[in-house]
Amino acid sequence: MAENGTDCDQRRIGMSKEQHNGNFTDSSVLSERKRRDREERLNIVLWKQPLVTLQYFFLETLINLKEWTIKLWHRWSILVCVLLALALLTATYYIEGAHQQYVRYMEKKFFWCAYWVGLGILSSVGLGTGLHTFLLYLGPHIASVTLAAYECNSVNFPEPPYPDQIICPDEAPAAGSISLWAIISKVRLEACMWGAGTAIGELPPYFMARAARLSGAEPDDEEYQEFEEMLEHAETAQDFASRAKLAVQNLVQKVGFFGILACASIPNPLFDLAGITCGHFLVPFWTFFGATLIGKAIIKMHIQKLFVIITFSKHIVEQMVALIGAIPSIGPSLQKPFQEYLEAQRIKLHHKSESGVPQGENWLSWMFEKLVIVMVCYFILSIINSMAQSYAKRLQQKMYSEEKTK
């Protein structure tokens, strides 16, 4: 892999020599200035500088719209084909006929898959928020399907209202207990789409590092700079974090497809480094994305599904509630809302929401709803802050380029 970038290495060495010959007067002064600029950008947030943040956010939005418009104009043939395809699909959607039942089915499946793919992309990209949509959306969905499957002794929930609402089927359940495989099959589509979204979200670090290597430029990206510093000080690394990053980098570089697959198949907070490594060493796109897609959408998602399903199996949930009641002093008071919540869900599954425990009064469901609202609001705020900081970064880079030309 390293042989593919020999020319880029020579260009990079040439640039380094020019820098030492006088383009940059003092590397320590430059690094200190970049550190100050980074701190200045991080202070551009809504709760510290609201007016400046909003102004930069709108300016960055306009710049992005302009760049996307120019890219679309340069690819007008692709744009025309997409518009023609959309026109054909629109005509098919609105023209009456026997095909409408298939159109409605495909529409529902498309938006359902797009919903989970979008959540996966948000979870992987995060835009600086660390928003893990598995904990907020996919995990609770798998848990609710698991609890309902054991309560109904079936996964044949009527559609509609499933997946918006889970209700036990009217027909008598088959004899025997619900199987683990049946629950896995029921949530496989959602889990695989979410995993595919996380794989797509890993592409930006790969493309950034690949473009930087091919152009020989020094990108003003903190993660890429940390990666290059790690390569320079690889032999002297002592702390655990540095050694872990080096292990990931060596695995991906030396093993290739199967190394990427191994990193993508387990919960790995350092996988961004794998994307940067693959881009830096010019690993082919389909090698990187194929291994990432298989690892995240198939292997890793089945591991996570099994963990959630086993954790929320009926007998394990009952044991957990019993253990909560065994806590001295506060156990019974904590156990009661959990029991009420489970009982309310059982009643709801059997079409008996008009009786029994009042809906919406349990503090567990109230807390989870508020948690989701807070996380989504924080995510939106973080998008605004991130785009404002991107515009500030543009201004700083413009200042650097003007100083170099003087």
UniProtKB/TrEMBL annotation:
Upper classification of the organism: Eukaryota, Metazoa, Chordata, Craniata, Vertebrata
Alphabetical UniProt keywords: Membrane, Transmembrane, Transmembrane helix
Residue ranges of the TM segments: 76-95, 115-138, 251-267, 273-294, 306-327, 371-392
Top-level taxon of origin: Eukaryota
Protein's UniProt name: VMP1 protein
